[in-house]
Amino acid sequence: MPGSAPALPPSVARVAARTRLSAELLAAILEVERRTRATLEDIERADALAERLLVRRGARLRAAAGRPAR
Question: Which of 13, 25, 26, 51 is the most exposed place for a label (fewest CB within 10 A)?
Fold first, then answer.
């Protein structure tokens, strides 16, 4: 597409996806617990959950494509 930004390298795209998901999970944690401030533990938990969700999603996509897990 003319004028669009080039695609991110896969490693950068993975970090960007994890960061976005982590932020969404952190917001959800705070919303569910009716809090306005996050602790370091909240941030670490959201990041760990984001990583696991992305790993699981990758495994499901590879399985659906008939490729073995890494």
Answer: 13
